[in-house]
Fold these 2 entries.
Entry 1:
Amino acid sequence: MSQRSERTRIRNHPERAVPDESAEILAQGQVAHVGFISGGQPFVVPMAYHFDPLSPDVLYLHGAVRSRAIEQLAEGQPVCVTVTLTDGLVYSRKAMNHSMNYRSVMVFGHGKLIEDADRKFEIFDQMVQRYFPGREIGQDYNPPPPEDLGITALVEVAIDEWSGKARRGPPTGPDDDKSGALGSAGVIDING
Ligand SMILES: Cc1cc2nc3c(=O)[nH]c(=O)nc-3n(C[C@H](O)[C@H](O)[C@H](O)COP(=O)(O)OP(=O)(O)OC[C@H]3O[C@@H](n4cnc5c(N)ncnc54)[C@H](O)[C@@H]3O)c2cc1C
């Protein structure tokens, strides 16, 4: 999976394209912003998700059976999923060069409902493991009863293509490496 079409060609700062990091970013991320169009109105809904780099052609979303996002995805409507990792706040001596260090992925795909109860059980367990490594079903929490699996929809998004983009490093203002110049410049490490 990598950049494939004009849709996923990074036009602004193409040198920041990191298609080979896309799977790693999806594996590390916690919140997916899920974009779709319903009745002509664009929606972007924050959601949890599951992604396994060993199966990089799909990701999983879940929610109440009647939620708008799930309804759209279950119909196979096109979906755009964005995941962002914020790494640093970049401050510059020049207003325009304030920025952020980030890694992000934009995924384009189509959803389909997973209705098989055993498959749902398996993916939900893997999803819990992704967010809470080492958390064991049957030991740390109870297996979900069939009625809970029934009211919670699971959607598999087949990934048609993706793009990855990252900004790294210091500010790039013209005076940012001049220690005697007015102001200050640097990077605040968000995860530090
Ligand atoms: C970090 C995070 C993780 C989440 N994970 C999941 C998940 O895995 N599955 C899931 O189904 N839901 C998740 N949610 C909730 C999700 O964002 C929606 O609120 C939910 O799907 C609403 O569904 P709905 O069909 O009832 O609302 P909709 O009919 O989609 O929304 C109706 C209106 O409510 C408002 N609205 C809905 N959601 C939000 C919101 N999050 N913030 C502000 N306004 C909102 C909007 O104005 C929207 O037009 C998560 C939210 C957050 C912040």
Note: The chain has one domain: 6-169+185-189.
Entry 2:
Amino acid sequence: MIRVAILGAGIGAEHLAAYRELPDLFSVNQIVDRDLDRVNALPNSADFAHVAEIDVALSDPEIDLIDICLPPHLHVEITLAALRAGKHVVCEKPLATSMADVDLIIHAAADRDVFPVFQYRWGPSFSALQALIDAGLIGKPQVGAVETHWSRGADYYAVPWRGTWSGERGGAILGHAIHNHDLLTHFMGPVAQVSAMAATRVNAIETEDCAAITFVMENGALCTSNVTLGAAFDQTRIRLVFEDLTATSGTAPYAPGLDTWEFTARDPAKQRMVDELLKDVKAEPAGFIGFFKAIADHLAGRPARPVSLDEGAASIALVTAIYYAARTGERVDLPITSEHPLYAGWQP
Ligand SMILES: NC(=O)c1ccc[n+]([C@@H]2O[C@H](COP(=O)([O-])OP(=O)(O)OC[C@H]3O[C@@H](n4cnc5c(N)ncnc54)[C@H](O)[C@@H]3O)[C@@H](O)[C@H]2O)c1
């Protein structure tokens, strides 16, 4: 049983609900928020300790895993403190807001695990796509296109840390499209080069809310991402074109793997093999439940594909490259090394 303290009762409430679906694997013993009214308002709140101070959770020997659902500017400091206290860490996105901080975390994580949150990876359609990949039915990645077309207005930005460089540390590239960029790289491979344009066109905020990005993957695939927080409604659309198969998402914004996808073989004769294989795919639990189950399996030494610290690091390297490309107009090479001008962070 993994004993958990959740820090932050916003999205932390959804983490709590997911842990509760895995009662043999996790026990949430503490929820920490300096706004105790938020903790008191959580469902069945008698089941866990209500705590206002983060240090109480970090110093408790009865806690194995610190789950950080705090605003982004606290992620690195609290991840490092939790690792020093000997805890495993789950950290909401973004893991960090500079590659220098990512390297500090990698250094500090020597014998503990850090699991960056990318729960979109779990859902029946991604179990299906992974099964097609594992069966060798898709071929090489060719091109991919992702649209993160969501709507955010004044109510969303009423939370003081949002929309600011000091609090949120970035805009739609860092806070919203990061999930879909993780999916793109998860299925199409690591990024070698990025070009990008970014703008603030929707809300009166400091950070960007629109972007158009192109990626060259290490395997040569060419991909694009189009982002706005000014769409009429929230939609995510993803199309991944492989040599032998095209995968087309539905339009569900936040859980693309829960939506119905089309998997179409290029050679109609192969479609039967695809359809046969898809009949037998065992879907993993979706969203946060699948994400946490993979962590429990990994920590218990069972076969699992949790989100790794290296994958979280890659997501921050990609954000760094996108901001640099957007500001300079240059095509940016990855990886981002300590020599890169934005290694210490992209805050203007
Ligand atoms: N994975 C996802 O799909 C997803 C969705 C939403 C938010 N997030 C991420 O989750 C994080 C939190 O976002 P949110 O929307 O829940 O924010 P929020 O502002 O609603 O909640 C954060 C909570 O942290 C508490 N807090 C802040 N500083 C504290 C401190 N020093 N000590 C104790 N408590 C403190 C606040 O009182 C607040 O209740 C962000 O990094 C965000 O990017 C991820």
Note: The longest helix spans residues 309-328.
